[in-house]
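Summary for the funding panel

The consortium committed to producing paired sequence-structure records for every protein in the target list. Below we show the first two records in order, beginning with the earlier of the two.
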Amino acid sequence: MGTEYDNFARFYDLEYCNLTDDLEFYRQFAERCDSPILELGCGTGRVLKHLAKAGFRVTGIDASRPMLDIARQSIADDTRLQRRIKLEEADMRSFKLRTRFHMAFCAINTFMHLMTTEDQVACLRTVHQHLVADGLLIIDLFNPDLALLLEGGGRIMLERLLVDPKGPTLITKMVSAWVDRVNQVNHLTYLYDEIGESGELRRTVAAISQRYLYRYEMEQLLVGNGFAVENIYGSYDLDPYSQDSIKMIFVARRV
C-alpha cells in the first residue's frame, strides 16, 4: 500500500519507541471499555503493545508495511502478545474488519495525516461501522498554535540526536517546516544523517504533511458522523482543554 512513513520507519521507531506519556491514558480508557480495541495508524506498535501487556486484545491497522514489519518483529518472541495482537495493513479511511470494537483510538496526531475533509469523514464513518453501540473513539490532536507552527520559517533546524542500539551509529535528526495557513497544512521535511564507525555519512530524507484542525472543526466532524463528544482534554492527565493546552484530545461515543 505504501505511505510517506515507509522511508523512515526505522527512525520513527527509534524516536518514539520509548515514549510513555500517553500509555496509562489509553490503559485507563481500555479498562472502562474492555476488549476488543482498535488502534488506527498503529505504526510500530508502541501503544497497542502496552495495552496487550495489560491483558487487552488489540487490533492495529496501518497503511505502512515497513512500520507493521517492525511491530511484528517486536513481538516475534512473545507468544502471549502474539495471541492478543492482530496487525493489518489497511487504510483507515476504508478498512473492513469482521470484528466490532468496544474502543478505537488514533494516537499522537495520526488523524492529521488525513488531508481533506472527505478523507476525515470517510475515516470517521468507517470507524463508526466498526464500533459496537456506545463504543468509544479517542482522537489525540495537536492544539494549533500558529506562533509555534510558524517558528521554523522553512529553515533547517537541529531537532535531536538518536542512537541506534543495534549498531554503532549516531543519528542526527534535522527538520524543516513550513505552514500553508490557507489549507491548514504543516509541511515537514526530516533529514536523518547517520555517521558510521569509519565516519561515512548516510542521509535519509522524508517528507510528511499534517492538516491541523481547530476545536469546533473537529467537534462538528464527530457530531456529523455519528458521534457524541463526551470530553475534550488538554493533556494525558485529563486536564480540561483550554486555549493554552498543548493537546486537544477528543473522547466521543458512538450514537
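The next record, for a separate protein in the list, is shown here:
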Amino acid sequence: MLSTYNTILTKKTQLNSNTYLYHFDLLEPKEIIFIPGQYVMLKVPSDKGPVSRLYSIASSNNSKTSFELIIEIVPGGLASNYLFSMSEKTEVVFQGPAGMFSLRENVKEKVFLITGTGIAPVRSMLNSIIKNKKAYLFWGLKSFKDVYLLNELREISMVGVNIKICLSREQNLEVVPSADRSFFDLGHVDSCFIKQFNNLTVEQINNLEFYLCGGRLVVEALRQFLQVKNVLQENIFFEKF
C-alpha cells in the first residue's frame, strides 16, 4: 500500500529551457524511505477529477526529510501546466514510493543508457549507492544547450563513473568548453556506447548490467539494440515513460 506524503515546495530551479528541478521538504510524515530508482505519484487537478502522474525521485536516499524531482515541462500538458505554475511554498501531496527499477547488488559493472529526464532515477542511484564502483553513464541529449547537472557529473566521474553525454544534433564539439570535452561525444546513446564497447567478448558482455531509462520508443529501441549485441535479458533493466 502506498503511503501519503504532505510536502512543501521549497526550491524550484530551472535547469534548461524546459526542465526544472523541484525540491520538496516533508511536512507529514517527517521522513520518506525509498530505494534509488523508485518514483512518487502526484495527483494533478483537472476538470474531470485528479489525474495521476508518476515522477522518478532524483535525489539521494541519504536525505530522508526531502526529495527532488527533475521534470520536463511539455507545452499544453496537464501536469506540465500545473507544475510550471507552481510557486515555492506551495503544499503538495504525493503518494509512494513505488517501482522496481533499482540497482542489483552484485559485482557486475553497471552501464546506464538514458535519454532526457531519464537522468532522474539514475542521479538518485549514482548519488546514493555507487562509491568507487566501476560504472558507465551514457546520457543522450539533443544539443549542448540542453545539458544540465554538469558540475555534479564532474564530481561523480571522480569516484569511478565514466561519463559520456551524447549530443545527437551537434555537428562538432566546439560548443563544449575544452576542459569538459572528455565528457562528451557526438551521436545517439547506442552509437556512443559502441565506440567504447565495440570489441567486448561474450564473457565480458555478460559481466555488465544495463539500466535503460527514457521515452518508451527510445527504451524499446535500446533493448532491441542490446539483444542484438547478445546481452542476456536478465542483465537488462529499464524504466520508460
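Regarding this second record: DSSP finds six helices and twelve strands in the chain. The first helix runs from residue 78 to 84.
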